[in-house]
Design a protein that fits this description.
Elements (H helix, E strand, L loop, with lengths): L24 H17 L23 E4 L2 E4 L10 H11 L3 E3 L11 E4 L6 E6 L5 H11 L3 E5 L12 E3 L5 E3 L6 H10 L4 E2 L2 H5 L6 E2 L3 E5 L3 H9 L3 E5 L2 H4 L17
Parallel strand pairs: 2-3, 5-6, 8-9, 11-12
Antiparallel strand pairs: 1-2, 4-5, 7-8, 10-11
Protein name: Amidinotransferase
Organism: Mangrovihabitans endophyticus
Length: 263
Amino acid sequence: MCPPEHFAIEYVINPWMDTGTAVDAGLALRQWHFLHDTLAGLGHRVHVLSAQAGLPDMVYAANGAFSVDGTVYGARFRHPQRAPEALAHQGFYAAGGWTFAEGNHVNEGEGDFAYLPGAYGGLILAGHGFRTDPAAHAEAQEVLGRPVVSLKLVDSCFYHLDTALAALDDRHITYFPGAFSAASQRVLAQLFPDAVIADQADAEAFGLNLVSDGRHVVLNAEATGMGEKVRAAGYQPIHVDLSELKRGGGSVKCAVAELRPRP
């Protein structure tokens, strides 16, 4: 995670951003700390990446890379305003001794990649349409050695895969069908017939931008309907208020890069 010490809406690169609306910097930081402490309280070790001045979106730490079993596929951001973030993330992984592969194609890390180690022997779901080039999916497959299923996003409000789909555990997902092309909807229905299906209200409340450890599902406070859906599916929802980060187009998952070291 990376604290929102420099978080602000200084430009518009997604439909949620509005430079005319000021961010409450103090509230953003308090909300971030609550998320950090919630994850730590669940028993997870949380590493903190130092924020850098001039990079207001760095708080969305999930976008910097994507890791699977000790190997990291680095981001190459679509928008120049965020491009320097990739180097900061690369430095973090280099210091930790991870095997790092720099992305040659435009991709935004875990924003557009999700991993399910228990599904089909280990499966990566990958989004494209707004931020990540389809060529990055093939590149990630070569780097990470796991099959990649490409999914087309068609609604700009759900510009990253992690705004429209989430892994609930090693084998199960939840997603909002309306964010995907008809063909991608058919692929998801075939691969995950028992998925938890979200509706547009869930997605607009950033209820799919969640982090799950297979038992606890941490999600945005506004997403009460989504919380009931995951509870009915056997998980324990934990709501956190990230209203300020939502102004920039992100919530829980955007703020958390999940680290997957070698087994």
